[in-house]
Write a structure and sequence with these properties.
Elements (H helix, E strand, L loop, with lengths): L20 H14 L5 E5 L2 H12 L4 E6 L12 H5 L5 H8 L2 H9 L9 H8 L9 H8 L8 H12 L8 E6 L7 H10 L4 E5 L6 H19 L6 E2 L1
Parallel strand pairs: 1-2, 1-5, 2-3, 3-4
Helix pairs in contact: 1-2
């Protein structure tokens, strides 16, 4: 199962909605419980990594395995200037919601193999965000990145950071694009400290959109990981 978070993909994009990290975790928990998933494998990337780990901490008895791509399960050590620009008052919202610059620039800035961003792939990635209203989820994800200890999402990430080591008892696979300028190798090192014993794959030639850069290598790695750590009932979210 590959659920779209509210505001993303083909999901609803309400204009008056709490797009916080906490709410996205609550949404995923509701999905897991409503489908009565047992022995589930959570796969997370970027904000989806924090959402998945937050859900795993809330329902550890339902989660058997974790696969984590470039993400952060802790308050951000820094905010890259390219993202900071999109958070500037007035300019930031215009850039993200009017000009769609965040999604457009990601097509080139987030990959190391631009030839894979064919016109069809680019159209698919941009299609859900074709208007001011439909870009609200992107804007709210960007603006939810916490910059101080007083931000609610900073506290949420700090709580996740405290809890993540308890997940080390589960099989964890980490696949990391080492040329990511946002979730840098330093983020990977911190995650490895939090989850010792994880199966870690460093993809030296890949960027933030690591799956786009290396899907033909990643799928076999995940299949091997699942085969090594079988569960009686496996529902992949």
């Amino acid at each position: 199962m590959a659920p779209d978070h509210i505001g993303c993909g083909l999901s609803d994009k309400p204009q008056d909605y709490d797009y916080s990290l906490e709410q996205h975790i609550i949404n995923l928990l509701k999905l897991i419980e409503s489908l009565d998933l047992q022995g589930a494998t959570l796969v997370g990337h970027d904000w989806g990594g924090a959402i998945a780990l937050g859900a795993a901490l809330a329902l550890p008895q339902r989660i058997s395995r974790l696969v984590i791509f470039n993400t952060a399960a802790f308050p951000p050590p820094f905010i890259p200037w390219r993202i900071a620009l999109c958070r500037l008052p007035w300019f930031g919202q215009w850039a993200v919601r009017s000009a769609n610059l965040f999604s457009r620039f990601a097509l080139s800035m987030a990959v190391e193999k631009p030839e894979r961003m064919t016109p069809a792939v680019q159209a698919g990635l941009l299609h859900p965000y074709d208007s001011w209203n439909n870009r609200i989820g992107v804007w709210r994800f960007v603006s939810d990145i916490p910059s101080s200890h007083t931000d609610p999402t900073w506290r949420m990430l700090a709580d996740i950071e405290q809890g993540v080591p308890s997940l080390a008892v589960k099989p964890v696979q980490i696949i990391w694009g080492m040329r990511d300028w946002c979730f840098t190798p330093e983020c990977l090192a911190k995650l490895e400290q939090m989850l010792p014993g994880s199966e870690v794959h460093r993809l030296e030639d890949c960027g933030h959109y690591v799956v786009e850069d290396a899907y033909e290598r990643i799928i076999p790695l995940m299949r091997e990981f699942f085969a090594k750590h079988p569960v009686e009932q496996t529902d992949t979210v």
